[in-house]
Amino acid sequence: GAGVSQSPSNKVTEKGKDVELRCDPISGHTALYWYRQRLGQGLEFLIYFQGNSAPDKSGLPSDRFSAERTGESVSTLTIQRTQQEDSAVYLCASSLGVIAADTQYFGPGTRLTVL
Amino acid sequence: AQTVTQSQPEMSVQEAETVTLSCTYDTSESDYYLFWYKQPPSRQMILVIRQEAYKQQNATENRFSVNFQKAAKSFSLKISDSQLGDAAMYFCAYRSAHSGNTPLVFGKGTRLSVIA
C-alpha cells in the first residue's frame, strides 16, 4: 500500500516568506508526527497529532511554527517569516495508534532552504 | 529528559564483513523501546530493528542484530555480511513506554560506508 508522502520534495524560499509543508499519512493511521533534521544532526521532535488534536506542541521552536491536521488525514506545517536557521529537512511520520509499541513510518521529507 | 548518544560519526566496512554501530542512552525509566533506523540518500527513514526493554533476548532481523545491555544502557547494532545497499546513515532512537504517546528521541547518527 501507499506509504507516507510529503510535498514539496524541495522548497527554496527567501527569508521572511511563509511556507507550507504537507504530509499525507498512511491511510488509517491515527497518529502523525513532525520532526526536523538539521544538516548533520539527528531528528528533533516538533509536534504530534492524535486524530486532529495536537496534545503535545512542546517541540515547536517558536511561535512562527504552527501545524494543523484535517481529521485523520493530511497535515500541514506552516512556518511564517522564515529565517535562515529554519533551513532543514522536515520529516513526517505516521503510526497506526498512539501506544509506544506502534511503529512510526516516515515520509521522504521536505528539504527547506531559506536564502 | 532522555538522551541518545552515537559516538561514531562515521564507520566503514568491507563488503561481506561484519560491523557494529554503537549507541548509548540515558533514562531513568524502566519501560521503553529502542530502535535502529536507516536513512539512505533518499532521506526516507526505514526501521531496521526494534527492541522492547522488558525483553532480555536480543532482537534479530536477518543480517541485523542488536546487543542490548539494559544495565549499561547500551544498544549496539551488528550488521553481518555487509552489502553495498547497507551504506546509509543509521540512527539509534529511544521511545518511552510511559504516559501515552511519546515522540522518538534520536541520536545524531552514524554514517556507514561499505567498501566493495
Q: Could you give a short description of this structure?
A:
The complex is a heterodimer of chains A (115) and B (116). With 115 residues, chain A is an all-beta fold. Chain A contains no helices and eleven strands.
Largest sheet of chain B: 6 strands, mixed
State mean pLDDT of chain B (0 to 100 scale). 93
Helix tally of chain B equals 0
Query: Helix amount of chain B, in percent?
Result: under 10%
Separation, N- and C-terminal Cα atoms of chain B: 41 Å
Q: Provide the gyration radius of chain A in Å.
A: 13 Å
Hey, roughly how much beta strand do the residues of chain A contain? over 45%
- As a whole number of angstroms, the C-alpha radius of gyration of chain B is 14 Å
Number of strands of chain B: 12
Spans of chain B with pLDDT under 50 lasting ≥5 residues? none
SSE series of chain A: EEEEEEEEEEE
Shape of chain A: globular
Count the DSSP helices of chain A.
0
What percent of residues of chain B are in strands? over 45%
What number is the mean pLDDT of chain A?
A: 92
- Overall form of chain B: globular
The largest β sheet of chain A comes out as: 7 strands, mixed
Of all chain pairs, the largest interface belongs to: A-B, 29 and 28 residues
Distance between the termini of chain A: 37 Å
